[in-house]
Protein backbone atom coordinates (compact mmCIF):
# COMPACT_ATOMS: atom_id res chain seq x y z
CA UNK A 1 0.00 0.00 0.00
CA UNK A 2 1.22 3.47 -0.90
CA UNK A 3 1.35 5.20 2.52
CA UNK A 4 3.54 8.21 3.28
CA UNK A 5 3.51 9.67 6.80
CA UNK A 6 0.69 7.23 7.62
CA UNK A 7 -1.53 8.66 4.87
CA UNK A 8 -2.59 6.79 1.74
CA UNK A 9 -1.61 8.31 -1.61
CA UNK A 10 -3.08 7.72 -5.05
CA UNK A 11 0.01 8.36 -7.16
CA UNK A 12 1.20 11.70 -5.67
CA UNK A 13 -2.16 12.81 -4.30
CA UNK A 14 -3.04 12.50 -0.60
CA UNK A 15 -6.37 10.71 -0.29
CA UNK A 16 -7.69 12.77 2.65
CA UNK A 17 -7.00 16.00 0.77
CA UNK A 18 -8.81 14.67 -2.30
CA UNK A 19 -11.84 13.84 -0.13
CA UNK A 20 -11.80 17.27 1.48
CA UNK A 21 -11.43 19.21 -1.77
CA UNK A 22 -13.71 17.20 -4.07
CA UNK A 23 -16.14 15.69 -1.55
CA UNK A 24 -17.27 12.10 -1.06
CA UNK A 25 -18.22 9.59 -2.33
CA UNK A 26 -15.44 10.04 -4.86
CA UNK A 27 -14.03 7.81 -7.58
CA UNK A 28 -10.29 8.21 -8.24
CA UNK A 29 -8.32 6.49 -11.02
CA UNK A 30 -4.57 6.02 -11.30
CA UNK A 31 -3.25 6.68 -14.81
CA UNK A 32 0.02 4.96 -13.90
CA UNK A 33 -1.78 1.69 -13.13
CA UNK A 34 -3.86 1.99 -16.30
CA UNK A 35 -0.73 2.37 -18.43
CA UNK A 36 1.05 -0.47 -16.58
CA UNK A 37 -1.91 -2.81 -17.12
CA UNK A 38 -2.13 -2.10 -20.85
CA UNK A 39 1.63 -2.40 -21.39
CA UNK A 40 1.69 -5.62 -19.38
CA UNK A 41 -1.14 -7.07 -21.45
CA UNK A 42 0.59 -6.16 -24.72
CA UNK A 43 3.93 -7.51 -23.50
CA UNK A 44 2.51 -10.90 -22.52
CA UNK A 45 0.86 -11.45 -25.91
CA UNK A 46 3.38 -9.76 -28.21
CA UNK A 47 4.33 -13.12 -29.80
CA UNK A 48 1.14 -13.03 -31.92
CA UNK A 49 0.18 -9.32 -31.63
CA UNK A 50 -3.57 -9.56 -30.99
CA UNK A 51 -6.08 -6.80 -31.59
CA UNK A 52 -6.97 -5.67 -28.05
CA UNK A 53 -10.47 -4.22 -27.82
CA UNK A 54 -11.23 -2.78 -24.39
CA UNK A 55 -14.63 -3.85 -23.03
CA UNK A 56 -16.27 -0.44 -22.64
CA UNK A 57 -18.96 -1.85 -20.31
CA UNK A 58 -16.28 -2.18 -17.60
CA UNK A 59 -15.71 1.59 -17.49
CA UNK A 60 -17.42 3.91 -19.95
CA UNK A 61 -15.98 7.26 -18.84
CA UNK A 62 -15.09 9.15 -22.02
CA UNK A 63 -11.79 10.46 -20.58
CA UNK A 64 -10.71 6.95 -19.55
CA UNK A 65 -11.57 5.63 -23.03
CA UNK A 66 -9.53 8.47 -24.59
CA UNK A 67 -6.48 7.46 -22.53
CA UNK A 68 -7.01 3.81 -23.48
CA UNK A 69 -7.20 4.84 -27.14
CA UNK A 70 -3.92 6.78 -26.85
CA UNK A 71 -2.32 3.62 -25.47
CA UNK A 72 -3.28 1.77 -28.65
CA UNK A 73 -6.40 -0.20 -27.79
CA UNK A 74 -9.64 -0.62 -29.71
CA UNK A 75 -13.10 -1.12 -28.20
CA UNK A 76 -15.56 -3.94 -27.57
CA UNK A 77 -19.04 -2.41 -27.29
CA UNK A 78 -22.46 -3.82 -26.42
CA UNK A 79 -24.77 -0.87 -27.16
CA UNK A 80 -25.13 2.13 -29.47
CA UNK A 81 -24.21 4.35 -26.49
CA UNK A 82 -20.91 2.55 -25.91
CA UNK A 83 -20.17 2.72 -29.64
CA UNK A 84 -20.77 6.47 -29.64
CA UNK A 85 -18.42 6.88 -26.66
CA UNK A 86 -15.72 4.81 -28.40
CA UNK A 87 -16.04 6.83 -31.60
CA UNK A 88 -16.06 10.16 -29.72
CA UNK A 89 -12.88 9.05 -27.91
CA UNK A 90 -11.26 8.77 -31.34
CA UNK A 91 -11.06 5.00 -31.64
CA UNK A 92 -10.73 3.85 -35.24
CA UNK A 93 -14.00 2.15 -36.36
CA UNK A 94 -11.85 -0.69 -37.71
CA UNK A 95 -10.80 -1.42 -34.13
CA UNK A 96 -14.39 -1.64 -32.82
CA UNK A 97 -16.20 -4.94 -32.28
CA UNK A 98 -19.94 -4.91 -31.53
CA UNK A 99 -21.11 -7.71 -29.21
CA UNK A 100 -24.39 -8.43 -27.40
CA UNK A 101 -27.49 -10.62 -27.75
CA UNK A 102 -30.12 -7.92 -28.27
CA UNK A 103 -28.92 -5.44 -30.91
CA UNK A 104 -31.87 -3.43 -32.20
CA UNK A 105 -32.40 -2.55 -35.86
CA UNK A 106 -31.41 1.05 -35.10
CA UNK A 107 -28.18 -0.10 -33.43
CA UNK A 108 -27.29 -2.44 -36.31
CA UNK A 109 -28.02 0.36 -38.78
CA UNK A 110 -25.73 2.73 -36.85
CA UNK A 111 -22.90 0.14 -36.73
CA UNK A 112 -23.14 -0.50 -40.48
CA UNK A 113 -23.07 3.25 -41.20
CA UNK A 114 -19.93 3.63 -39.09
CA UNK A 115 -18.22 0.76 -40.95
CA UNK A 116 -16.90 -0.90 -37.79
CA UNK A 117 -14.62 -3.95 -37.86
CA UNK A 118 -17.17 -6.59 -36.85
CA UNK A 119 -20.72 -7.14 -35.70
CA UNK A 120 -20.56 -10.36 -33.69
CA UNK A 121 -23.99 -11.94 -34.16
CA UNK A 122 -25.50 -14.20 -31.52
CA UNK A 123 -28.58 -15.70 -33.19
CA UNK A 124 -30.12 -16.63 -36.54
CA UNK A 125 -32.66 -13.82 -36.19
CA UNK A 126 -29.89 -11.28 -35.69
CA UNK A 127 -28.01 -12.45 -38.78
CA UNK A 128 -31.20 -12.20 -40.85
CA UNK A 129 -31.73 -8.65 -39.51
CA UNK A 130 -28.13 -7.61 -40.33
CA UNK A 131 -28.51 -9.06 -43.84
CA UNK A 132 -31.85 -7.28 -44.36
CA UNK A 133 -30.38 -3.87 -43.39
CA UNK A 134 -27.20 -4.49 -45.41
CA UNK A 135 -29.31 -5.37 -48.47
CA UNK A 136 -31.34 -2.14 -48.17
CA UNK A 137 -28.09 -0.17 -47.96
CA UNK A 138 -26.52 -2.19 -50.80
CA UNK A 139 -23.54 -2.91 -48.57
CA UNK A 140 -21.41 -5.89 -47.60
CA UNK A 141 -21.13 -6.18 -43.82
CA UNK A 142 -18.34 -7.95 -41.94
CA UNK A 143 -19.72 -10.18 -39.20
CA UNK A 144 -18.70 -12.78 -36.66
CA UNK A 145 -20.76 -15.56 -35.13
CA UNK A 146 -20.56 -16.12 -31.40
CA UNK A 147 -20.17 -19.76 -30.47
CA UNK A 148 -21.34 -20.95 -27.05
CA UNK A 149 -18.63 -23.51 -26.22
CA UNK A 150 -20.52 -24.91 -23.20
CA UNK A 151 -17.51 -24.13 -21.01
CA UNK A 152 -17.91 -23.42 -17.31
CA UNK A 153 -15.65 -20.53 -16.29
CA UNK A 154 -15.92 -21.70 -12.64
CA UNK A 155 -16.69 -18.19 -11.39
CA UNK A 156 -19.94 -16.61 -10.18
CA UNK A 157 -23.12 -17.87 -11.84
CA UNK A 158 -24.18 -14.24 -12.42
CA UNK A 159 -21.20 -13.60 -14.73
CA UNK A 160 -21.06 -16.96 -16.52
CA UNK A 161 -21.62 -16.56 -20.27
CA UNK A 162 -20.19 -19.73 -21.84
CA UNK A 163 -22.47 -22.54 -20.62
CA UNK A 164 -25.29 -24.02 -22.72
CA UNK A 165 -27.93 -22.67 -20.31
CA UNK A 166 -26.64 -19.09 -20.73
CA UNK A 167 -28.31 -16.72 -23.21
CA UNK A 168 -25.09 -15.97 -25.08
CA UNK A 169 -23.97 -17.32 -28.45
CA UNK A 170 -25.19 -20.42 -30.32
CA UNK A 171 -24.49 -24.14 -29.94
CA UNK A 172 -22.28 -26.07 -32.39
CA UNK A 173 -25.14 -27.37 -34.52
CA UNK A 174 -26.63 -23.89 -34.94
CA UNK A 175 -23.16 -22.44 -35.51
CA UNK A 176 -22.53 -24.68 -38.55
CA UNK A 177 -25.98 -23.85 -39.89
CA UNK A 178 -25.31 -20.11 -39.57
CA UNK A 179 -21.86 -20.43 -41.17
CA UNK A 180 -23.51 -22.04 -44.21
CA UNK A 181 -26.22 -19.37 -44.34
CA UNK A 182 -23.75 -16.46 -44.00
CA UNK A 183 -21.35 -17.73 -46.65
CA UNK A 184 -24.21 -17.99 -49.15
CA UNK A 185 -25.33 -14.42 -48.52
CA UNK A 186 -24.40 -11.66 -50.96
CA UNK A 187 -24.42 -9.02 -48.23
CA UNK A 188 -22.55 -10.76 -45.41
CA UNK A 189 -18.81 -11.35 -45.05
CA UNK A 190 -18.28 -13.98 -42.35
CA UNK A 191 -14.89 -13.11 -40.89
CA UNK A 192 -14.90 -14.12 -37.24
CA UNK A 193 -15.56 -16.96 -34.83
CA UNK A 194 -16.26 -15.35 -31.48
CA UNK A 195 -16.44 -16.71 -27.92
CA UNK A 196 -16.60 -15.25 -24.42
CA UNK A 197 -17.06 -17.64 -21.50
CA UNK A 198 -17.44 -15.30 -18.54
CA UNK A 199 -15.73 -12.88 -16.23
CA UNK A 200 -13.30 -12.79 -13.30
CA UNK A 201 -11.47 -15.95 -14.49
CA UNK A 202 -8.28 -16.71 -12.55
CA UNK A 203 -7.74 -20.35 -13.57
CA UNK A 204 -6.46 -21.19 -17.06
CA UNK A 205 -8.33 -24.51 -17.33
CA UNK A 206 -11.60 -22.99 -18.65
CA UNK A 207 -9.62 -21.19 -21.37
CA UNK A 208 -7.81 -24.42 -22.32
CA UNK A 209 -11.15 -26.23 -22.61
CA UNK A 210 -12.58 -23.34 -24.66
CA UNK A 211 -9.66 -23.46 -27.12
CA UNK A 212 -10.11 -27.22 -27.60
CA UNK A 213 -13.77 -26.67 -28.49
CA UNK A 214 -12.83 -23.91 -30.97
CA UNK A 215 -10.15 -26.15 -32.54
CA UNK A 216 -12.69 -28.96 -32.97
CA UNK A 217 -15.26 -26.61 -34.52
CA UNK A 218 -12.70 -25.10 -36.93
CA UNK A 219 -11.74 -28.58 -38.14
CA UNK A 220 -15.39 -29.41 -38.81
CA UNK A 221 -16.02 -26.32 -40.92
CA UNK A 222 -14.26 -25.54 -44.18
CA UNK A 223 -14.74 -21.81 -43.73
CA UNK A 224 -11.55 -19.77 -43.42
CA UNK A 225 -12.13 -17.32 -40.58
CA UNK A 226 -9.87 -14.25 -40.59
CA UNK A 227 -10.38 -13.56 -36.87
CA UNK A 228 -10.80 -15.63 -33.72
CA UNK A 229 -12.28 -13.44 -31.00
CA UNK A 230 -11.43 -15.03 -27.64
CA UNK A 231 -13.36 -12.48 -25.59
CA UNK A 232 -12.03 -11.35 -22.23
CA UNK A 233 -12.83 -12.40 -18.69
CA UNK A 234 -9.30 -12.22 -17.30
CA UNK A 235 -9.67 -11.89 -13.54
CA UNK A 236 -7.88 -9.88 -10.88
CA UNK A 237 -7.32 -10.53 -7.16
CA UNK A 238 -9.76 -8.39 -5.17
CA UNK A 239 -8.46 -9.66 -1.82
CA UNK A 240 -4.83 -9.00 -2.84
CA UNK A 241 -4.02 -12.49 -1.53
CA UNK A 242 -4.09 -14.40 -4.81
CA UNK A 243 -2.33 -14.02 -8.13
CA UNK A 244 -4.08 -12.59 -11.15
CA UNK A 245 -4.58 -14.76 -14.22
CA UNK A 246 -1.20 -15.92 -15.56
CA UNK A 247 -1.15 -14.08 -18.91
CA UNK A 248 2.28 -15.44 -19.83
CA UNK A 249 1.03 -18.99 -19.54
CA UNK A 250 -2.17 -18.12 -21.43
CA UNK A 251 0.03 -16.75 -24.23
CA UNK A 252 1.83 -20.11 -24.47
CA UNK A 253 -1.48 -22.00 -24.63
CA UNK A 254 -2.75 -19.76 -27.45
CA UNK A 255 0.53 -20.11 -29.38
CA UNK A 256 0.08 -23.90 -29.35
CA UNK A 257 -3.53 -23.44 -30.49
CA UNK A 258 -2.46 -21.17 -33.38
CA UNK A 259 0.01 -23.78 -34.65
CA UNK A 260 -2.84 -26.26 -35.11
CA UNK A 261 -5.06 -23.99 -37.18
CA UNK A 262 -4.59 -21.84 -40.29
CA UNK A 263 -3.23 -18.34 -39.74
CA UNK A 264 -5.75 -16.30 -37.78
CA UNK A 265 -5.75 -12.89 -36.10
CA UNK A 266 -6.64 -13.09 -32.41
CA UNK A 267 -8.95 -10.52 -30.84
CA UNK A 268 -9.14 -9.97 -27.08
CA UNK A 269 -11.84 -8.05 -25.20
CA UNK A 270 -10.33 -7.36 -21.74
CA UNK A 271 -12.09 -5.01 -19.35
CA UNK A 272 -11.52 -5.74 -15.67
CA UNK A 273 -7.84 -6.67 -16.14
CA UNK A 274 -7.24 -3.26 -17.76
CA UNK A 275 -9.11 -0.94 -15.37
CA UNK A 276 -10.08 -2.96 -12.28
CA UNK A 277 -7.17 -2.08 -10.00
CA UNK A 278 -6.89 1.52 -11.26
CA UNK A 279 -9.89 2.76 -9.26
CA UNK A 280 -10.48 3.73 -5.63
CA UNK A 281 -13.75 4.80 -4.01
CA UNK A 282 -13.29 7.34 -1.20
CA UNK A 283 -16.07 7.55 1.35
CA UNK A 284 -16.62 9.39 4.64
CA UNK A 285 -17.95 7.74 7.81
CA UNK A 286 -21.27 9.42 8.64
CA UNK A 287 -22.02 7.50 11.85
CA UNK A 288 -20.70 4.60 13.87
CA UNK A 289 -23.68 2.66 15.16
CA UNK A 290 -22.65 0.51 18.10
CA UNK A 291 -24.07 -2.97 18.58
CA UNK A 292 -23.35 -5.80 21.05
CA UNK A 293 -21.76 -8.06 18.44
CA UNK A 294 -20.44 -5.53 15.91
CA UNK A 295 -20.29 -1.86 15.03
CA UNK A 296 -21.96 -0.62 11.86
CA UNK A 297 -19.66 1.79 10.02
CA UNK A 298 -22.21 3.87 8.09
CA UNK A 299 -20.57 5.41 5.03
CA UNK A 300 -21.78 8.12 2.66
CA UNK A 301 -21.12 5.71 -0.23
CA UNK A 302 -23.83 3.15 -0.92
CA UNK A 303 -24.84 0.31 -3.20
CA UNK A 304 -25.96 2.83 -5.83
CA UNK A 305 -22.31 4.03 -6.00
CA UNK A 306 -20.74 0.55 -5.93
CA UNK A 307 -23.16 -2.24 -6.81
CA UNK A 308 -20.79 -5.23 -6.94
CA UNK A 309 -20.99 -6.25 -3.24
CA UNK A 310 -24.83 -6.17 -3.26
CA UNK A 311 -25.14 -7.73 -6.72
CA UNK A 312 -22.46 -10.42 -6.56
CA UNK A 313 -21.44 -10.63 -2.90
CA UNK A 314 -18.09 -9.22 -4.08
CA UNK A 315 -15.51 -8.26 -1.45
CA UNK A 316 -13.23 -5.30 -2.10
CA UNK A 317 -10.09 -4.56 -0.09
CA UNK A 318 -11.06 -1.79 2.36
CA UNK A 319 -8.84 0.34 4.58
CA UNK A 320 -8.53 3.73 6.24
CA UNK A 321 -7.10 6.79 4.54
CA UNK A 322 -4.94 7.57 7.58
CA UNK A 323 -3.20 4.82 9.55
CA UNK A 324 -3.70 4.72 13.30
CA UNK A 325 -1.99 2.44 15.78
CA UNK A 326 -4.98 1.23 17.80
CA UNK A 327 -6.91 -1.89 16.69
CA UNK A 328 -10.60 -2.18 17.52
CA UNK A 329 -11.81 -5.18 19.52
CA UNK A 330 -15.16 -4.95 17.74
CA UNK A 331 -16.10 -6.39 14.36
CA UNK A 332 -16.80 -3.64 11.85
CA UNK A 333 -19.51 -3.95 9.20
CA UNK A 334 -19.13 -1.29 6.52
CA UNK A 335 -22.56 -0.29 5.21
CA UNK A 336 -24.24 2.44 3.20
CA UNK A 337 -27.31 4.58 3.98
CA UNK A 338 -29.67 2.98 1.44
CA UNK A 339 -32.83 1.25 2.71
CA UNK A 340 -31.72 -2.27 1.73
CA UNK A 341 -30.09 -4.94 3.90
CA UNK A 342 -27.80 -5.75 0.96
CA UNK A 343 -26.40 -2.21 1.10
CA UNK A 344 -23.18 -3.35 2.75
CA UNK A 345 -19.63 -3.57 1.52
CA UNK A 346 -17.64 -5.83 3.82
CA UNK A 347 -17.37 -7.13 7.40
CA UNK A 348 -13.89 -7.01 8.97
CA UNK A 349 -12.26 -7.95 12.25
CA UNK A 350 -9.08 -6.50 13.74
CA UNK A 351 -9.52 -3.24 11.84
CA UNK A 352 -7.92 -0.07 13.15
CA UNK A 353 -10.11 1.95 15.53
CA UNK A 354 -12.30 4.33 13.57
CA UNK A 355 -14.03 7.62 14.30
CA UNK A 356 -16.91 9.40 12.64
CA UNK A 357 -15.81 11.57 9.67
CA UNK A 358 -12.77 9.33 8.97
CA UNK A 359 -12.17 8.60 5.27
CA UNK A 360 -12.42 5.00 4.10
CA UNK A 361 -10.93 3.71 0.84
CA UNK A 362 -12.45 0.86 -1.15
CA UNK A 363 -10.00 -0.64 -3.66
CA UNK A 364 -10.22 -2.07 -7.17
CA UNK A 365 -13.41 -0.31 -8.25
CA UNK A 366 -12.18 0.73 -11.71
CA UNK A 367 -14.24 -1.98 -13.42
CA UNK A 368 -18.02 -2.21 -12.98
CA UNK A 369 -17.96 0.46 -10.29
CA UNK A 370 -19.18 3.69 -11.80
CA UNK A 371 -20.55 1.89 -14.89
CA UNK A 372 -23.03 -0.02 -12.67
CA UNK A 373 -23.93 3.01 -10.55
CA UNK A 374 -27.48 4.34 -10.37
CA UNK A 375 -29.69 7.00 -8.81
CA UNK A 376 -31.45 4.56 -6.50
CA UNK A 377 -32.96 6.36 -3.47
CA UNK A 378 -32.61 9.52 -5.62
CA UNK A 379 -28.91 9.75 -4.84
CA UNK A 380 -26.61 11.76 -7.14
CA UNK A 381 -23.77 9.88 -8.80
CA UNK A 382 -20.24 10.59 -7.48
CA UNK A 383 -17.56 12.71 -9.11
CA UNK A 384 -14.65 10.98 -10.88
CA UNK A 385 -11.00 12.05 -10.91
CA UNK A 386 -8.08 10.92 -13.08
CA UNK A 387 -4.74 11.23 -11.31
CA UNK A 388 -1.46 11.44 -13.25
CA UNK A 389 1.34 11.92 -10.78
CA UNK A 390 0.44 15.24 -9.13
CA UNK A 391 -1.99 16.29 -11.88
CA UNK A 392 -5.66 15.87 -10.94
CA UNK A 393 -8.38 16.10 -13.59
CA UNK A 394 -12.12 16.02 -12.93
CA UNK A 395 -13.33 13.55 -15.56
CA UNK A 396 -16.96 13.59 -14.41
CA UNK A 397 -18.56 16.24 -12.25
CA UNK A 398 -20.63 15.22 -9.25
CA UNK A 399 -24.23 14.91 -10.30
CA UNK A 400 -26.57 17.55 -8.87
CA UNK A 401 -29.79 16.63 -7.16
CA UNK A 402 -31.75 19.21 -9.13
CA UNK A 403 -30.63 17.55 -12.38
CA UNK A 404 -32.20 14.29 -11.21
CA UNK A 405 -35.35 15.86 -9.87
Element layout with pairings:
Layout: E1 3-4, E2 7-10, E3 13-14, H1 15-22, E4 26-30, H2 31-44, E5 51-55, H3 62-70, E6 74-77, H4 80-88, E7 96-98, H5 105-113, E8 118-121, H6 124-137, E9 141-146, H7 172-184, E10 188-194, H8 205-220, E11 227-229, H9 247-260, E12 265-268, H10 272-275, E13 279-290, E14 294-299, H11 308-312, E15 318-320, E16 331-335, E17 344-348, E18 359-363, E19 383-388, E20 391-396, H12 401-404
Parallel strand pairs: 4-19, 5-6, 5-12, 6-7, 7-8, 8-9, 9-10, 10-11, 11-12, 14-16
Antiparallel strand pairs: 1-2, 2-3, 4-13, 13-14, 13-18, 15-18, 16-17, 19-20
Describe the structure concisely for a colleague.
This protein is α/β, with parallel strands linked by helices and 405 residues long. Helix content is 29%, strand content 24%. It has helices at residues 15-22, 31-44, 62-70, 80-88, 105-113, 124-137, 172-184, 205-220, 247-260, 272-275, 308-312, 401-404, and strands spanning 3-4, 7-10, 13-14, 26-30, 51-55, 74-77, 96-98, 118-121, 141-146, 188-194, 227-229, 265-268, 279-290, 294-299, 318-320, 331-335, 344-348, 359-363, 383-388, 391-396.
Keywords:
nine-stranded mixed β-sheet; elongated; 12 helices; 24% strand; 405 residues; alpha/beta; single chain; eight-stranded parallel β-barrel; Lyase, Ornithine Decarboxylase, Chain A, domain 1; TIM Barrel
Task: Write structural notes for this entry.
The protein is of the alpha/beta class. The chain folds into two domains: 3-29 and 276-404, Lyase, Ornithine Decarboxylase, Chain A, domain 1 (Beta Barrel); 31-274, TIM Barrel (Alpha-Beta Barrel). Helices cover 29% and strands 24% of the residues. The protein is built from twelve helices and 20 strands. Helix 3 links the parallel strand 5 (51-55) and strand 6. The two termini are 40 Å apart.
Amino acid sequence: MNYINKEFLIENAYSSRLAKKYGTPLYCYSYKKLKENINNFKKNFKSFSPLICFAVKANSNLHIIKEIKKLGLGADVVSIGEMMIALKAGINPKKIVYSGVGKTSAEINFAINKNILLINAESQSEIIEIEKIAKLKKKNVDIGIRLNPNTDAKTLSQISTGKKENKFGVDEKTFFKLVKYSTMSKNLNLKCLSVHIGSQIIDLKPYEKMLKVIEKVLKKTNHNFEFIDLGGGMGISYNHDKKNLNLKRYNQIIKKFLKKIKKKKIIFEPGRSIVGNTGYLLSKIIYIKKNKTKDFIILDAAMNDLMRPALYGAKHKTFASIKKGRISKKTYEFVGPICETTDKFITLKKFQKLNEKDIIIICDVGAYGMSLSSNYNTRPKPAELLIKGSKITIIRKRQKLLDII
